[in-house]
Amino acid sequence: MRLAEALAARADLQRGIEQLRARIVANARYQEGEEPAEDAAALIEEAEGALTRLQSLIRRINATNARLDLGADGTMTDALAARDVLRLRHAVLTDAAAAASGANEQYLRQMRSELRQVSALPVAALRARADAVAQELRELDNRIQQANWSHDLEEESGSR
Asked: Tell me, what DSSP letter sits at residue 32?
């Protein structure tokens, strides 16, 4: 199984577990004299099996990410950390530029005698930096995706 396939399987398992959780909650109590739509105890057992499979899959994904060498980007774990930080950096820069430009303000000056707002930050420079970070993020994400589709998931390494 390729790493990308394992990531898709993880997402499917997580969605399925969330659906089971909602079904368990919906059927945990019922009105006296009626039957619940589903057996909540059986749903819990089904969720337990899915959670066990999810834990094993996450363990294998993490082991693969820790060992997968992406060259200049370090391990896959290093690259994922860098991607998370790039996303946050991009958000900080774009939010700062938007705030400095007044893009989010509802207030408009009505009269010349009212105080006007001035920017404390260089909007154009912030947007240029945000664009550069976005480009770096796209390139790193492409390298991560390429590695996901070209590397196999590590096998289960015994029980822990």
From this structure: T
